[in-house]
Amino acid sequence: MKKFLLLLTLPFLMMGCNNGDEPKPAPQADMTVMAYLVADAANIEDDIWTNIAAMYDGLAEMTKSSTLLIYWDGSGKYGSWDYPVILRYQCDGHGNINGQKQLLEDATVEEVVALAEVVKEYPSQLSVEKGVMTQVLKDMISFSSTSKIGLIAASHGSAWTNSIYMSRSLTRSFGQDGKGTDNTMLIKDMADAMKATGRKFDFLLFDACFMGTAEVCYDLKDAADYQIASVMEVPAYGFPYENSIKYLYEGTVEGYKNICQAYIDFYKQRYENGRQAWGTIALVDSKEMLNLANATKSEIVKHKDALADFDVDDMQEYGKQGGSDIAYDLGELVSRLNGGSIPQAFAAQLDKTVLYKGCLEIASPPSYAVDAANYCGLGIYIPMEYRDEWNQFFKTIDWYTAAGWNEVTFSWD
Question: In angstroms, rounded to a whole number, what is the distance separating the alpha carbons of residues 377 and 354?
């Protein structure tokens, strides 16, 4: 009888051992991360190209089944595509991506890209055109089945101002498609392109310079629930996706805070290792941007006489390489207008709007260091006499009226 029971149970024991060799399917992440990489510019393509490998390494660490979609528009210099494509990487939550074990850490970007599934190809196109972005984002969304969708936007950036190199062509800009500095995108058009997909994005992360300003965040407040951006130049390495992209898949405020903290920690470590490092980063709650605009308007209207000829010479300014005057600190401005302290009501609104802020107080080069005491997380443009072309264009953006600048009579205007 005992022998019979043993023979009866043996097949089930063997089945249990066999199942142990194959892990159970991992649960599905609620978030799909999409990356819109506009890299067809000679001085940035190499850095954005390597970001693909960093994203891949970070994806392999996921313990949930997760999808990464990448729109790549480059020059074709790496022997890859000389036309735009959408790449898909699917992690099973057990270290396998697109059905294969994760490559070793020293794998080349080319080896990582060779594993990608090309799910969509496009003819040559300007990825910074509104209609093109809308269609690409719609296509990427069609390859996702999750309830949440977030977007990484990586390229050049120059906030609301006059094109990528602050030239005389009056365009606010994200992206640079090709060598021409005019092939950029108005922030307003970017917001419209995102909204035209019919989906509000859960987050928008800018891996691009100068996008952490009130003007930019206000334009994009209806396109994404949360915005992650730096008010100053983003180092060429960009975000450390290899150890932080996992936080985006959480789809929570805490997750977004964690990727901001990972960004600051990464550059602090680089500085300690004797390498060039600097940075600011902030997490903005988009739904509070209208309230912040109203609070700012109250301060600007109250102090419009002082702002008519305001001296910014000794204020903290964030543009370090050709971005002079692009952004001063919003909190510091309000503090100076009020005798050196931020009114409690305004400070409370700032806290509701900026959910995380981080900066490097010691940096290399030293001029990139940020005074944390005067860093609120958001930059703001302050009109000044010798920036006449900027001043005229500033009048056309939504923040200008929403924040009350239209009620200031400047001494030179």
Answer: 7
